[in-house]
Structure formats: C-alpha cells, structure tokens
Design brief:
With 312 residues, this protein is an alpha+beta fold.
Length: 312
C-alpha cells in the first residue's frame, strides 16, 4: 500500500495563496483591540501569513512583511530565554495549567497564593520577565537581541509610542505585579519590571520575522546558527504549554481547530509550530471576543487541514 501525504517537501506558496484567497472572500474579521490607540487604529482587513522551513527558507502571502505589534507573542520568547537560564526552578514560581480565566484576571492569584497558573497569562508573563530581568539585567534587551538574531533582521525594534501607551493604560498589570510582590513572587522593583514588560510587548515584527524567530521550537531547541538554546525536553515543554495555554481562554478550541502549539497576541498575530517540520506566523488585527485574530485562526485551521501538518 502506498501511503500518500499532502505534507510534501515542495514550496508552501500554493497553499498560502489559496488560504489568502479564501480569507479575502470571508466576511467578518472581528475588531482590533481598543485598549490603546495604536492598536485600535489598525485596519481589520489586513492579512499576512508566513511559513518558515527549518533551514530558514520562508514563504509568505499578503502583508507578511509588514511589522505589527507582537504583544503577548513575546511571552513565548521570554519563557524560552528564562528556561534556558534557570531551568526547572522557574516552575516553582509559575504553573503550567490553563487558567480558565481572562488573560489579565486577578481573582485566581489570591486563591493560589500569588503563583500564576501559566506563563502566558499576564501575571505569569510578569513573573517570567521578572526572573529574566534578575538574570540578565535587561530582559527586554535580551528578548530584542534574540529576535533580531533568529529572524536575521537587525531592524527589529521596540515601538516607543506603544510602550508609553501600555504604561499609561497599565493599571491592571501594575496591580498584578504588586499583588504577586506581596506574596514574594517578584524580585525586582515593580516599576522596573513594568517598564521591561511594556517594552517587551511593544516589539514590532512581521510574520516573516516571527516565523523565523520561533524556528528553535520546531528544531527541538536549536537556534538558527546551530547553537542549542533549550534541551529537546524543554522545547517539548514550551510547545506543550503553548498548545494548552497559548491562545487565551480559547486554547481548547484552537487545539481542536488547528492542532498545533500556538501563541496569539492582541496585536492580531499568532505564531504556531509544527515540530520537526516548519513554523508559521499569521497576522490580521481583527479579534474575536476572546482576543484571538479571527482571520488568523481561520487561516491556521485551513493550513493544517489542507496540508495535514499538525501534531495529531
Ligand atoms: N500588552 C498587553 C497587556 O499586557 C498584552 C496583551 C496581549 O497581547 O495579550 O495587557
């Protein structure tokens, strides 16, 4: 018997073109995040998608080279950078269970003594950035250097206006940080941590940049230059936490539809990993009610359906 697979080794371009065409014809894109003006101003009809192979070959369609606000997507990178430095000790300070609550919720923290459920809700990401800050003394700088190196794009940068705007609307993140500090789960002064976190969220990058930058998770922990960032087992762990906690309070639905580890951000981007095969990034700023890009999830759903490339 000959087993046929649609997961061929040739160019991803035809499948990307087909997905872009389907998305173009689909009405209803959701609404851009409106908690800061820079995000609210985005056109929900924008759409881009990129696929990167393990060797750094990258394919794209639509606005795939347009920089957008990465926001919570950066939480995957700070998690990997901190895990690489401190290993399992991190898990004494943050859990790895889905929260079942909105990403910026305070309630669960009190029941659970200041230990956030996972590294991808805001409380958990603040803990990770705090720990990376302690170890590197410039968490957001380390993140930016890593993204530049892995994407091969030295022009990647923070957006100072977005960072300032996050800060001006940052009362809830400040509350989360102070609350965890009261349990002894934050090392750095809260203003220092918040400054780092808001800078982190403000990084601008394109689908091409992010698909390349997340390649180490498809290469089982190996960076673009061949150096190892994470052990194979740590790369598996990060992928697993993305699958179960990476798309806000909709990770079950995302796993059902897409079948890949993924992480979304309120800027409308989503990264996804096919371990051992390729990485993806899709961007469209219109969000659904749970904070995930409407066209982004739809496009990833079509990609795994059309190619058969998923972890299941
Ligand atoms: N800067 C946002 C916040 O901390 C990130 C939100 C997100 O992308 O989930 O509120």
């Amino acid at each position: 018997m000959v087993i046929m697979t649609t997961a061929s080794s040739h160019s991803f371009e035809p499948v990307l073109a087909r997905i872009a065409e389907e998305i173009e014809r689909t009405p209803g894109r959701g609404r851009p995040a409106d908690y800061i003006p820079a995000l609210a101003a985005c056109d929900p009809r924008r759409f881009g998608m990129a696929v990167a192979e393990l060797d750094g070959t990258v394919y794209g369609v639509g606005d795939w080279r347009e920089p957008f606000s990465t926001q919570s997507i950066t939480k995957v990178f700070t998690l990997a950078l901190d895990l690489a430095r401190e290993g399992d000790a991190l898990w004494e300070h943050v859990g790895r269970e889905p929260s079942g609550n909105p990403f910026n919720s305070l309630v669960q923290l009190e029941y659970e003594n200041g230990i956030p459920r996972n590294p991808f809700i805001n409380a958990g990401a603040l803990v990770v950035t705090d720990r990376l800050q302690t170890r590197s003394s410039d968490a957001s700088g380390e993140l930016l250097a890593f993204l530049r190196a892995e994407s091969g794009n030295p022009a990647l940068d923070f957006d100072q206006d977005v960072a300032a705007s996050e800060s001006a609307h940052g009362d809830r993140n400040a509350a989360l940080a102070h609350f965890m500090a009261s349990y002894g789960n934050i090392d750095n002064p809260v203003p220092v941590l918040l400054d780092q976190y808001f800078r982190q969220c403000s990084v601008m990058a394109s689908c091409a940049d992010l698909a390349l930058a997340i390649g180490f998770l498809a290469r089982h922990g190996i960076r673009a230059d061949g150096d190892r960032l994470l052990s194979q087992s740590q790369a598996k762990q990060v992928n697993a936490v993305m699958l179960t906690c990476g798309t806000y309070d909709a990770a079950g639905d995302f796993a059902y539809r897409v079948g890949l580890p993924g992480k979304s951000g309120v800027g409308g981007g989503i990264i996804a990993v096919v371990p051992g095969r390729c990485t993806l990034c899709v961007w469209s700023p219109g969000l659904d009610e749970r904070g995930n890009s409407v066209a982004g999830v739809a496009a990833l759903d079509r990609f795994t359906t059309l190619t058969g490339l998923s972890v299941f």
